[in-house]
């Protein structure tokens, strides 16, 4: 069964993902659905969050949009329309020309995302030479400015250094510089702060806000941390087991989270103003206990509000009846508005 | 398990150590505070490793000997000052003052010929290894960069090469050229090394293919050429270069065996250890020492290269990091 799409894509939509489904598995085996009918829209300048625990299909969603999934061993269905073109139908060459120029991506681990044997400057310049046809010297000069812009101190020196000579935060800044070098209209950030320590995380998020959000670049922010969402995203999609279980504008989601899973995620954010002895609510079990969406709600085995119908009928994604704003929900027995964690 | 399967497994195990090459700089490294780089930390461990020290010393002495051979050798390699002592009953001049190892059956100084032979032996070994490396780089890069069908075809060719007994293959190449010479020797040995290098490189290229930094580069639209030559190849070379050190030893031994079988350079005015060994076989009953010396040199030098190669591999293997 397919989820009813959110409101049809309006003309000012930059990226419109519809019923994106990714299956892994070799011939003969029953395929494993990592992403199952995911639909969402991104407007220019908007920041959209994809939130969920490890293994819920966040990275696979973004890799599918970027055309970066392995060539063999998977099946992608649905569409991802970017500025009128369905990215999923482009051939290798066309998609390659768009990557880095129209859409760019940054990854979780900044150290392993950089080539260890090539200097930072050459790596940034490579993108400029590739897409803007710049000469080496011009590209190096521009790289210096880019490093400066992402807040790397002493950029002329850092240009000549190798990834292992930079700190984790600086490496992620360098990767952001590379991603933004050709001023893409959409940036996908796959857990860009997970590998960094807390103070650096805040800096990187601020940098993204400054450079991406304020310059009108659209951003898909992938995270398992609702704290990141609270500071950055306009629109939030909560994923569980490859499906969207709740979608709402940020204020709406934080004011009245309805899905028990969303509530669980919210409950696991440490709060500075929380009482000392207040326990961090964690969701019992893990995605490893995941069941497919075929027989009832996949979250039911871990859900404190699960009732009989949850195990019998697979819920569909529908407009929440009590919400005022756009608020889609896939749940038989949601928390009442203003639900508690 | 067939010998061929064993050979393959060994190569693949080596290649697997390259899979982690991407995180090497992290492992032994403390960033910013003037920490250790990959090479730095490997060197620190090597310096304290007696196996490496022995291997490196032997190798260094051998290379120095080869370079300065004409200056070190007390006599010429072609003059035959001892010819007067060569008789039918006693064809090998004894060791004597000025000629500590005696002469050969043409009255030439054995010590000088041994010293001069080091140069030829090194040249054959190095050239054969370089040629094998070059061939392996081409095939391995092709397979590792394109993957898919190209990979399958290239690797089948490599498997065929790998399945031929190396000596037989070398013999075939040598006879193919009719007149054996130093060059047929080099070609023969390098052909045998190509599949080893190719398989090794392909293995580490494939693990680079699925690495984060290659994915990140692809996410920026970088084309296949730069992905291969800037992002994959340089990060895959480590185990291949270590293997080259080990192959040097094999090449020297292989050259010796081929020369011994008469497939080497027929002209003995520029001596080579394998060739000297080959010539010594007729006289082995009377004068075993003229076989002993070149054989001993070959063993010691091959041992030196092997010790050095093995300890290098150990030092650069991220799994051995403490
Ligand atoms: N190449 C692949 N082949 C088979 N299964 C895969 C492949 N890539 C991902 N998967 C599976 O798809 C599911 C979703 O993976 P994905 O990487 O999208 O998770 P994620 O939400 O990004 O998690 P994390 O927070 O850990 O990054 C996982 O169960 C994973 O095992
Ligand atoms: Mg992920």
Would you give an account of this structure?
- Chain A: This is Dipeptide/oligopeptide/nickel ABC transporter ATP-binding protein.
- Chain A: GO terms for molecular function: ATP binding; ATP hydrolysis activity.
- Chain A is globular, with a radius of gyration of 21 Å.
- Chain A has a domain at 252-273 and 280-341.
- Chain A is α/β, with parallel strands linked by helices.
- Mean pLDDT of chain A is 86; it is low at 1-6 and 274-280.
- Chain A contains 11 helices and 12 strands.
- Chain B has a domain at 126-322: MetI-like fold.
- Chain B contains 12 helices and no strands.
- Chain B is elongated and about 80 Å long.
- In chain B, 48% of the residues are buried.
- Classes of the chains: A alpha/beta (341), B mainly alpha (322).
- At the A-B interface, helix 2, strand 6, helix 3 and helix 6 of A face helix 2, helix 9 and helix 10 of B.
Query: SSE order of chain A, as H and E?
Result: EEEHEEHEHHHHEHEHEEHHHEE
Overall geometry of chain A: globular
Low-confidence stretches of chain B: 19-36
Strand content of chain A: 15-25%
Q: Please give the order of strands in the largest beta sheet of chain A.
A: 6-7-8-3-9-10-12-11
- Spatial extent as radius of gyration of chain A: 21 Å
User: Architecture of the domain at 126-322 in chain B, CATH level 2?
Assistant: Orthogonal Bundle
Could you tell me the number of beta strands of chain A? 12
* Total beta-strand segments of chain B: 0
Largest sheet composition of chain A: 8 strands, mixed
Note the total helix count of chain A. 11
Would you tell me which CATH topology of the domain at 126-322 in chain B applies?
MetI-like fold
Tell me the series of helices and strands of chain B, N- to C-terminal. HHHHHHHHHHHH
- Helix/strand/pairing category of chain B: mainly alpha
Pick out the low-confidence regions of chain A: 1-6, 274-280
Shape of chain B: elongated
Protein name (chain A): Dipeptide/oligopeptide/nickel ABC transporter ATP-binding protein
Subcellular location (chain A): Cell membrane
Domain ABC transporter (chain A): 15-266
Membrane topology (chain A): Peripheral membrane protein
